[in-house]
Design a protein that fits this description.
The structure is a homodimer. In chain A, helix 1 runs parallel beside helix 3, helix 4 packs antiparallel against helix 5 and helix 5 packs antiparallel against helix 6. Chain A has one domain: Phosphate transport system protein phou homolog 2, domain 2 (Methane Monooxygenase Hydroxylase, Chain G, domain 1, Up-down Bundle), CATH 1.20.58.220. Chain A is elongated and about 65 Å long. The first copy, chain A, is built from six helices and no strands. By secondary structure, the first copy, chain A, is an all-alpha fold. At the A-B interface, helix 2, helix 3, helix 5 and helix 6 of A face helix 2, helix 3, helix 5 and helix 6 of B.
């Protein structure tokens, strides 16, 4: 039988840190999936479960941070090791924020259940699918230390932003055509913005993993295509 | 004349870290002030300056983080000192996010300049005033290590949330009454949400400073009064 160790080896600590990150990544993925299911199934009970489960990611973030700080203070790691441990702190903080946005989606899905069905909501699952693939790839890149894959993730965010831009304009047009849809469309707008922000944070994740693996920053211009801050949507001709 | 020291003392390093935080706090305050001035003065040039200046906060955050990690690795600080250095990392990350929201306000102010004037926009400067007082008090609490003041800040966030709730309902009503206002009102809605999020982050700041000073968490239920995720605004009778 394996012996009990009261003092873990440095490698054991590092492996433990990695598996905590992977677990947290899996939980964040599940939160995003659950939130969008709650939305499309109009399932308030599932939304409540997602909201409640967010706490476990907050706790995991704290645990990862504590362990990382302790390792830095007690082991004085250098170069690659220090970079990996600092990356763990940043990754856990980013995953916590991703889960936070998923929680917000779940919250808003509850009020949407009570409103009229709005057609453009079909673009939302598309945005989520793309975001989920990005998140999965970023987590795979972390496990495999695959810098090439982080670049792929980084470039995919453009697609999420483009879907968001379409949705933004479409929703505003719906609101103009039918004032009864203003409340549900506003909530869908905020849901879409939450998912667009998740895409941004997965892009951050890709940058953190790239830096961890390569020791240099992903030195290109960030693909930033959410231009809705500057969008003016003209009212339809009949208003 | 003072002699050159190639190796700084630990206290010098700590003081340097503190003054970097204070400087970053001042810059974040200035960004928020500038963003709201750009909005109320309909001054696109000022908005562009705010957007450009955000970069300096990103750089400062990186510098603070590098210095803090280096201090943890090389000095292996314990207890109070470790808590202060970890707090510096978190504070700089929070200030960076606050400045990011200010930048978003500046971005949206540019498109609002091109739209019709919307009446409820007067509530926005009120929200900003309250948020700025909170930010100033949180930074004072950091400098003075004043736990009492952090609790005060923490409790003030309720006021920001209440203003946001009013604004949310008011804006939706305006949109229902006049479809021509849907585009500007949507941008104001996102601006208001950005400021509401700044309030949340200043509340985080208060929690970080409290923990740094007291060594225990601000163990109350967080005052969370943005209930617009659950808001259903009925259309006016004439639609």
């Amino acid at each position: 039988m394996a012996q009990e160790h009261t003092v873990k080896s440095y490698d054991e600590e590092l492996n433990q840190l990695r598996s905590m990150i992977s677990r947290m990544g899996g939980l964040a993925e599940a939160q995003l999936t659950g939130a969008i299911e709650a939305l499309t199934e109009r399932n308030a009970e599932k939304a409540q479960r997602i909201i409640a489960a967010d706490r476990s990611l907050d706790i995991l973030e704290q645990e990862i941070e504590s362990q990382a700080i302790q390792m830095i203070a007690l082991r004085s790691p250098m170069a690659d090791d220090l970079r990996e441990i600092v990356a763990a702190i940043k990754i856990s903080s980013t995953l916590e924020r991703i889960a936070d946005y998923a929680k917000n989606v779940a919250k808003r899905s509850i009020v949407l259940n009570q409103s009229e069905h709005v057609k453009p909501a079909v673009l939302i699952p598309q945005m989520v699918e793309l975001t989920k693939v990005m998140l999965k790839d970023a987590l795979d890149a972390y496990i495999d230390r695959d810098a090439q894959k982080t670049i792929m993730v980084w470039e995919s965010d453009k697609g999420v932003d483009e879907l968001y831009n379409s949705l933004f304009r479409e929703l505003l047009t719906y609101m103009m055509e039918n004032p009864r849809l203003i409340t549900p469309c506003t909530h869908i707008l905020f849901i879409a913005k939450n998912i667009e922000r998740i895409g941004d944070h997965v892009t951050n994740l890709a940058e953190i993993v790239y830096y961890q693996v390569k020791g240099e920053t992903l030195d290109m211009n960030r693909p930033k295509s959410d231009d809705t801050s500057f969008a003016v949507v003209p009212p339809p001709a009949n208003t």
